Amino acid sequence: MQTTRLLLDTGSGGKASHRLIKDLFVKHFSNDVLDKMDDAALINVTGPLAMSTDTFTVTPLFFPGGDIGSLAVNGTVNDVAMLGARPLYLSCAFILEEGLEMSDLERIVQSTAQAAAKAGVKIVTGDTKVVPRGAVDKMFINTTGIGEIMVQPCPQGHRAAPGDAILVSGTMGDHGLTILATREGLSFEAPIQSDCAGLGHLIAKLLQAIPEIHVLRDPTRGGLATTLNEIAGQSGVQCLIREDAVPVNPVVSAGCSFLGLDPLYLANEGKLICILPARYAEQALSIMREDEFGRNAAHIGDITDEHPGRVVLRTPLGGHRLLDMLEGEQLPRIC
Amino acid sequence: MQTTRLLLDTGSGGKASHRLIKDLFVKHFSNDVLDKMDDAALINVTGPLAMSTDTFTVTPLFFPGGDIGSLAVNGTVNDVAMLGARPLYLSCAFILEEGLEMSDLERIVQSTAQAAAKAGVKIVTGDTKVVPRGAVDKMFINTTGIGEIMVQPCPQGHRAAPGDAILVSGTMGDHGLTILATREGLSFEAPIQSDCAGLGHLIAKLLQAIPEIHVLRDPTRGGLATTLNEIAGQSGVQCLIREDAVPVNPVVSAGCSFLGLDPLYLANEGKLICILPARYAEQALSIMREDEFGRNAAHIGDITDEHPGRVVLRTPLGGHRLLDMLEGEQLPRIC
Q1: Whole-model pTM over 0.90
Q2: pLDDT confidence of A15, banded at 50, 70, 90?
Q3: Could you tell me if A310 lies within 8 Å of chain B, comparing CB atoms?
Q4: Is the pLDDT of residue B190 over 90?
Q5: Whole-angstrom distance, CA of residue A253 vs CA of residue A249
Q6: Looking at beta carbons, which residues of chain B come within 8 Å of A333?
Q7: What are the chain B neighbours of A45 within 8 Å (beta carbons)?
Q8: Rounded distance between C-alpha atoms, residue A85 and residue A251, angstroms
């Protein structure tokens, strides 16, 4: 890198663009497909496929447990994997603000490459736009992923059925509270960090053992409560959740009490909801708990046929509370 | 739409997001895959595939001949098609600024849907982020496309060979000059408009008749000169171009003279470069000229083995000029 800040003409499509692409993106993302440097990538897959896209606008760019680059890989890898697919290929499109620190960009490109390697996906095609100062806040990244479906019928949001168990792979709310705390300069009695992680390998293990899984979904924006409402609506069932069974990191719980936030509505970026016939619940929990990203997996509730479309929380005192979808905006730009 | 401007909580992932997605995006983009509303789309394809991504940051959002929505569809459809693929599926990710006029957003979503229908592609998965005022300039769109490869070996940038003819499908520079003129409020003696168009159908016709095509590439950012330099570099050949054979709309030519711009470096968004064995040149030109997007197709030069990696322009007076890659930035945010 010859300059310490990104120049506007680096986005022209001309010589400066080609240097940036070669010296930075291809250097870190290098693989047999990307290195061909055509406008489109030639990939070999056999259908059916899962395809998913997400743009990441998180602020700040760096946070405990990750950065916008690792988040952009893991977020899309997870969305692809939730359809029961093995994530294989990613596109990666950067929108960069003129004047961005080149050292920040290089750190993020490295972390993007590391997250892709860990998730076992290749970044096969990309795009770089540099826009004038003020036209974007530092950096946004879009990733789009495709993967091969591993089981048919594949897990989908409309397949939850009465008699199914609802599992989560770990504690709720870590990512959302970490972003808020980092942004506002808050500190708690113990450090917290984002759960940002790719779940493709864990999902492959689950589906290999239990192809009958009905729904897999990652509770990102809007948190567990909003995601369960989506599933309840798509499947026309009720989700009945036991409040004291939902795993929440004690520091997140204390932080949420202090700030008036509900961990059930905070985003997660390395957790999954798994809905499957109750007879497989213990087996699925064992598989999750053996995985580095499923240590705190728990059976948090069940699918019933009362009140289709609703999510109900049973409190430790035996009360029932309707868990609605998130209405307003708890916190913008968490992903 | 209940409000005339976009609210921040529309990007929360909660109720307001779901309403926007249902009332706007799904309404206009509706198809059997998207309507499932899972985080990933389930698609049936048979490999090998072409995959390409592009983020569109064009300003202004509306311009003669198109808008950011039609541009986002056509730009990615073209990149996929240039690898000899039939574009089939698109993801579409919107980044929206709080306060955006809802009527502008709806116009753009409609135009996106129309461009997709015309190109014969389905928008199967999407993402919407709403960021606080000032974090993005109005609206950016990322599209990622996949398509099935129609011929093998497929056209790629490294396949240009001595003896090949270099064709273009029409006039050069219309898009770039239109964006500049719109932005700066310039008017010329006759109206000009962007050439923004999807070339998938034209490419399918070309490849069906002439599977031996070596290279297809769309001269977008950096224009014809920069794109030919890429190909010359990838293939290790020289591109020898006859200046008086390159079709340029007379109004674009006059506007460029006036502004000190070179149409060979201006972006196009509905044109292609086709490089193929010279014996097929006339056949390819006939096919192009019968298509609505190829009326002004021309044979502009040839591939030779002198000076590998170079693009040389032969002027009408017999002189030779080296056409280098674009060095700086002629005009930011043209796509």
Answers
A1: yes
A2: confident
A3: no
A4: no
A5: 6
A6: 129, 131-132, 135
A7: 45, 47-49
A8: 34
B5 reaches A (C-beta below 8 A): no
Closest residue, chain B, to A91 (C-alpha): B53
| pLDDT of A2 higher than 70 | no
Q: Residue B108 belongs to what H/E stretch?
A: helix B102-119
B31 vs A: CB within 8 A: no
- Taking an 8 Å cut-off on Cβ atoms, the answer to whether A15 and B327 are in contact is yes
Bridge pairing between strands B164-168 and A66-67? unpaired
For residue B79, give the nearest of A39, A51, A57 by CB distance.
Answer: A39
Print the SS3 string covering chain A: CCCCECCHHHHCCCHHHHHHHHHHHHHHHCCCCHHHCCCCEEECCECCEEEEEEEECCCCCEECCEEHHHHHHHHHHHHHHCCCEEEEEEEEEEEEECCCEHHHHHHHHHHHHHHHHHHCCEEEEEEEEEECCCCECCEEEEEEEEEEECCCCCCCHHHCCCCEEEEECCCCCHHHHHHHHHHHCCCCCCCCCCCCCCCHHHHHHHHHHCCCCCEEECCCCCHHHHHHHHHHHHHCCEEEEEHHHCCCCHHHHHHHHHHCCCHHHCCCCCCCEEEEEHHHHHHHHHHHHHCCCCCCCEEEEEEECCCCCCEEEECCCCCEEECCCCCCCCCCCCC
What mean pLDDT comes out for the span B95-107? 96
B 187-216 residues with CB < 8 A to A: none
Residue pair B55/B140 in contact (Cβ under 8 Å)? The answer is yes
In tens, the pLDDT along A268-301 reads 999 999 999 999 999 999 999 999 999 999 999 9
Does the pLDDT value for residue B231 go beyond 70?
A: yes
| Contact call for B47 and A46, based on CB within 8 A | yes
B185 part of contact set with chain A, CB < 8 Å: no
Query: Which of A93, A135, A146 is the closest to B142 by Cβ?
Result: A93
CB atoms within 10 A of CB B186: 13
- Kindly indicate the confidence band of residue A1, based on its pLDDT and cuts at 50, 70 and 90: very low
Least CA distance to A324: which residue of chain B? B15
Tokens of A322: 């309707």
How far is the C-alpha of B195 from the C-alpha of A214, rounded, in Å? 47
**Among B42, B120, B270, which Cα is nearest to A153's?**
B42
Mean pLDDT (whole number) for B294-308: 97
Within 8 A of B85 by CB-CB distance, chain A residues are 40
Domains in chain B and their CATH numbers? 5-149 (3.30.1330.10), 164-322 (3.90.650.10)
Q: Is the pLDDT of residue B330 over 70?
A: no
Q: What's the mean per-residue pLDDT of chain B?
A: 94
Write out the two tokens for B33. Answer: 């895959």
A 10 A CB-CB count for A143 gives 33
* Cβ proximity of A121 and A43 under 8 Å: no
User: Phi and psi dihedrals of A29, rounded to 5?
Assistant: -95, -5
**CA-based nearest residue to A17, from B94, B335, B273:** B335
A22 has a chain B CB within 8 A of its CB: no
Q: Is the pLDDT of residue A13 over 80?
A: no
d(CA B216, CA B82): 5
Which residues 147-166 in chain A show a CB within 8 A of chain B? 149, 154, 156-158
